[in-house]
Amino acid sequence: MADVKAVVFPACAALCALAFLYKLRDVRHRRDDPALLALLVAFSCKGVSFTLSTPLVARKVDVALGVDDLGALGIHLFGGVASSAAFLTAIVYWVYPREEAQRRALVRLLAAAAVAVVMIGLWVAAKHGGQQRSAHYLVQNAHRPVVAAYLLLYVSAFGSGMIEIIRLCLRYGRVAGRQWLRRGLHTTAVGAGACLVYCLNRLLALITSQCGLDPLEWELLTPVANGVGIFFLVAGLTMPSWGPRVSDGRRMARNFITYQRLHPLWHALSTAVPGIALDPQPAGRLARLLPGDINFRLYRRVIEIQDGLLALRPYMDSDIIAAARRSADEAGLSGDALQAQAQAVSLAAALRAKRDHRQQPGEEPAPLGPDATRGGGYADEVAWLLKVAQAYTVLPSTETSTETSAETTERTTR
């Protein structure tokens, strides 16, 4: 068991330190934010608690200060009473108006201070018994009335704080306006639930010790519950800060993939109609892989493809479009897939017609596009062009080879 705690608890302390340093960066801009200050206190208290929970550190602290089990008192005060009050204070400021949050936070902080004073008194009273140092202070001394009262008070304070955190997170997580705040509150509730399992385990130790059973047989639950709890608490309480960056990164990655998938379609159109390109100079492979502002580049690519399709409308043959639709229908396609296939085939034919300077006589054919019964904006247009690009890319080489030949001929002439 000591080996497990020697690994899990230092890792938990390091996680708390990282969370503390991460939120510390915001102090410069948000000095008057009570929720931020409460989080810093909570993470630091939890970090101290997990450091003291490491068996080697606990022994060295007791030896250095000459007081047995002083480390255990620090664990319970910092990791249970103080940290739960600080976590709860931060959440209260998130979900209540400032004035009401101040009142609620003050009540909880005063209650935590009162519990801490009583716990210190009970701990001092327990030390008068002359007991030797205990590697598992609560479990090994739960049969003693004073320690039992100490344990019960500690579990009640810590557990009630976790229950209140769960209640607030679940209640306000359902109505939180910001997506990442909502996710953070739900994640925090999971972490508080894991800590509540630890509290119940300690309460079970109090009961079983009175029945002559050995609670150390399931002491593995302590590092497991604490490790899971602090992971989700840290993730949930910092999520409103780093979550939007994750969304931005995911959106940039999605836009980059879309940008690359649209390249064959854009390349065919910009070769036939060079005027649609904002930058008429041909971009190399490196420039394609490192486009810079990907959001702007994708927007420009969509506009240029639309301009290219518009410029090719005089070269689109209605008969070819109708034949392409029939062929796609016979292949089992329907809806946007059928429309995209027809658009790709007619586009390839239009590119050949433009190369040969063969405009279609009469009225231009109606432009193809997604189902007109659906309203849509930029996102729908991008989705539609992706379907067209995919259909165009997989066309038989005989349908697109003339375009390549034309480009090669043009380069040779130059």
Automatic annotation (TrEMBL):
Residues 254-393 form the DUF6545 domain. Keywords: Membrane, Transmembrane, Transmembrane helix. Pfam families: DUF6545. InterPro entries: DUF6545 (IPR046675), MAB_1171c-like (IPR050039). Residues 351-375 are annotated as: Disordered. The chain crosses the membrane at residues 6-24, 36-58, 70-94, 106-126, 146-166, 187-208, 220-242. Signal peptide: none annotated. This is DUF6545 domain-containing protein. It comes from Streptomyces morookaense (Streptoverticillium morookaense).
